[in-house]
Amino acid sequence: MSTGIILWRKRITSAPVRIRRQVCAWQLWSRPRGVVVWVLLVHLFVACVGGWLSATARVAADDLMRFAALLTAAVLHMVLTRELEERRRGTHRPGGEYVDQTSLWLASGALVLPLPLTLLLLVGVRTQRYLVARRPPHTFVFTTSAVAVSILGTGAVATVTRLREWLTATTSLPDRPAEMVWAALAVASAMASYFAGQAVVIGVVRGLSTRDWSPAGLFGDRAANMAILNTLALAVGIAVLQMLSPLLVLLLVPVVIRSARTEQHLQQAHADRAQLKADALHDPLTGLLNRRGFEPAAALALLDDERLGEPTAYLFVDIDRFKLWNGRIGHHGADELLRAVAEELRRQIRHHDVVCRFGGEEMVVLLRGSDLDQAMEAGERIRIAVEGLRTAVTLPAGGKPIRIGTDGVPCCTVSVGIAVTRGGGSDLDELARRADGALFRAKSTGRNRVVVATASSTAALVETDTPS
Predict the structure, then answer these.
(1) Contacts of 270 (CB under 8 A, 6+ apart)
(2) Given this model, what pLDDT does residue 442 score?
(3) Where are the domains of the chain?
(4) Which of 3, 37, 41, 174 has the fewest CB atoms within 10 Å, i.e. is most exposed?
């Protein structure tokens, strides 16, 4: 047997092992148990319901023509805007809502295509989009499942209300006032279903991760939602236009591209103005507030909580043995680790909490309306999440990156000091002193633990299972 065949067989047999190792290294498994369960349930729902409905659907020749037109338009759109999309994703603020304009084609497909073809369109669009997404595979697959949920909901509404029959000209268009009102309600319901599908699926993950179940925390900010609604309105226009001829959909591709470029120029101009103001208040490495930006924001939050009669928690978070990390992975690698820890802090807090890089490897989190138990839970959640990081960092001498917490490289850990406002209120400086004292106690008693400053300014140790 030739050497080439032997090597080929080894690659084939070792492929499942590599895939299993990659899956086991996903950060998904370090997220709260509720998040993992919800993600798996969403995948299971899409696979079962989507598979069953697709098996029972009928596809006609006209459907194939509509599918070909939408797929061609979507591919042209993505290919001709790839550079623009890469810039959008590269400058996108971490943790913010991202609106992918491919929903134009997917939402219109959900209105006019049978489910099997809509899901096939989804696979084609998302496969191409993955090349520029630069996101972990499990995250990208989950957001794809969220889009599939939207497609299932929109398709169900389009079928039940006869909207698909009207849009595909298989039945006469409504001409009486009552029918026209019904058609308008059907369109609104279909688009609301598309919006709600992704909003609920992704919003539950946010809620389980941050414990923030407010509407803003679940559904994102107003600007992103308006962009989604504008995209869905254009999707309805595409669905209506294809009634005349599916090929007319291709005429909208230049319009969509032009609109995307104009929007990008406007966003860039706005971002440039905002960046000039934000640079003075944010840490350039992590993107978190610096002390200049944190102190007035935290003071206002503290006053607001006091006015509402709610407690406020102050968390001092310090990366353990950071000088040793500098020596082991170099300053560039340590910067990558700092960014990873900062991003994890963002994921573990709510949108109205205040987080700051206080200096060096120290970060501060101000938890709005949080009592001692909630602060301890948040501190422990942060500690566990950071310890579960498997960030790949580049060594100073180059070569293959190493992954924190694997292959003999220790895990990154943090110590957390917590102070909570007293019944009569506290000022920011007092909270900082008490939290700093609790952090000192955490460092001196073993690190990788959470310590709470009591009302008498002494520190109470919260033991962990894995002290370092």
Answers:
(1) none
(2) 93
(3) 1-26, 31-278, 291-462
(4) 3
Report the alpha-carbon angle 97-100-105, nearest 5.
Answer: 145
β-strands 392-393, 402-403: how paired? antiparallel
- pLDDT bucket at 157, cuts 50 / 70 / 90: very high
Q: Where in the sequence numbering do the catalytic residues fall?
A: 361
CATH code of the domain made up of 291-462: 3.30.70.270
Predicted local distance difference test score (pLDDT) of residue 244: 85
- Rounded-to-integer distance, Cα 299 and Cα 427, Å: 8
Residue given tokens 């058609």 in the structure block = 183
Q: Are 381 and 315 in contact (CB under 8 A)?
A: no
Could you identify the residue written with the tokens 């591209």?
257
Percentages helix, strand, coil for the chain (3-state, rounded to 5) are 65, 10, 25
CA–CA separation, 464 vs 468, rounded Å?
10
Measure the CA–CA gap between 114 and 55, rounded to whole angstroms.
11
User: In Å, how far are 70, 116, 369 from 59, measured between CA atoms?
Assistant: 16, 8, 55
Per-residue model confidence as pLDDT tens digits over 311-332: 999 999 999 998 888 888 888 8
Tokens of 224: 């992103």
Cβ atoms of 420 and 312 within 8 Å: the answer is yes
pLDDT tens by residue, 106-142: 999 999 999 999 999 999 998 888 776 667 778 888 9
Rounded-to-integer distance, Cα 358 and Cα 416, Å:
13
Integer Cα distance of 266 and 272 in angstroms: 10
38 vs 174, more confident: 38
Long-range contacts of 121-125 (CB under 8 A, 24+ apart): 121/67, 121/70, 121/71, 121/74, 122/147, 122/148, 122/151, 124/71, 124/74, 124/75, 125/74, 125/78
Nearest of 162, 71, 140, 62 to residue 109 by alpha carbon: 71
Q: What is the model's pTM?
A: 0.56
The answer to whether the CB of 240 falls within 8 A of the CB of 167 is yes
CB 62 within 8 A of CB 101: no
pLDDT range class, residue 468, cuts 50, 70, 90: very low
Q: How many other β-carbons are positioned within 10 Å of the β-carbon of residue 229?
A: 14
CA distance 151 to 143: 12
Hey, what's the torsion of the CAs at 301, 304, 306, 311, to 10 degrees?
A: -50
Angle at 352 between CA 450 and CA 264, to 5 degrees: 125
User: How far, in Å, CA of 155 to CA of 63, rounded?
Assistant: 14
* pLDDT at residue 134, as a whole number: 61
